[in-house]
Design a protein that fits this description.
Strand content: over 45%
Order of helices and strands: HEEEEEEEEEEEEEEEE
Helix content: under 10%
Structural class: mainly beta
Number of strands: 16
Shape: globular
Number of helices: 1
Distance between the termini: 14 Å
Radius of gyration: 18 Å
Largest sheet: 13 strands, antiparallel
């Protein structure tokens, strides 16, 4: 393969057709993810919203993660004796802000496709300058002490992408238990993301793939 073609990296395809350059479309993802650390595990069903595109320069497909919404009624943290709260944050010039907040433009997590070996791609979310940040709090009733945990996990995740073939069998992003999908750091040690997300086009349930 020519060097220039290798440098281009994976691109996004919509229903089997390469997405036109700089013509972004909206996607939605959902799944159940677990953050495992020395503090225990926190598991939530999540819904994510993103804007994907293939850039004009021919480089790898990129996206902006504009929403990562843990469904708190589904969140389970066996180590928390009370109520668990999970909030996604993004870095801004004025400090960490909740993902999707308008300041005046929406905060987001940057994302880029990466080929790690022929036929194997990862979806890299977060950078050193703008990492994923997940704030986890645990609350108990005030008479029992109130807040018992407040910790940020931050870093980069790199789930494997598995291309689907239809709306009935859409593409997924898989986080492996060995930690090669990346990990998030905290003052109490690293956290590994586990689980799987399903990805589709938002407007018409398009099949989103990369190659």
């Amino acid at each position: 393969m020519p060097v220039a073609a290798q440098a281009a990296g994976p691109h996004y395809y919509v229903n089997g057709v390469e997405l036109k350059k700089s013509k972004p479309i909206d996607t939605v993802s959902w799944g159940t993810l677990t953050l495992k650390s020395a503090l225990g595990t926190t598991t939530c069903h999540n819904i994510d919203f993103a804007e994907i595109e293939n850039p004009d320069n021919g480089g790898p497909g990129v996206s902006k993660i504009l929403g990562f919404v843990p469904q708190e009624s589904t969140c389970v943290a066996p180590g928390c004796p009370g109520v668990i709260e999970v909030v996604p944050l993004a870095k801004t010039a004025t400090g960490d802000q909740e993902l999707g907040t308008n300041l005046p433009s929406p905060t987001f997590w940057p994302d880029v496709l990466k080929e790690v070996e022929p036929g194997v791609e990862r979806d890299v979310t977060g950078t050193a300058e703008n990492p994923i940040i997940i704030n986890i709090k645990c609350f108990v009733p005030p008479e029992d002490g109130g807040e018992v945990l407040n910790v940020d996990f931050s870093g980069i995740n790199e789930p494997l992408t598995v291309n689907g073939g239809s709306a009935a069998k859409p593409s997924t992003q898989n986080f492996d238990p060995e930690g090669s999908s990346g990990h998030l750091e905290s003052e109490d040690g690293p956290g590994i993301t586990l689980g799987e997300d399903t990805v589709m086009g938002y407007a018409e349930e398009e099949v989103i793939t990369n190659k």
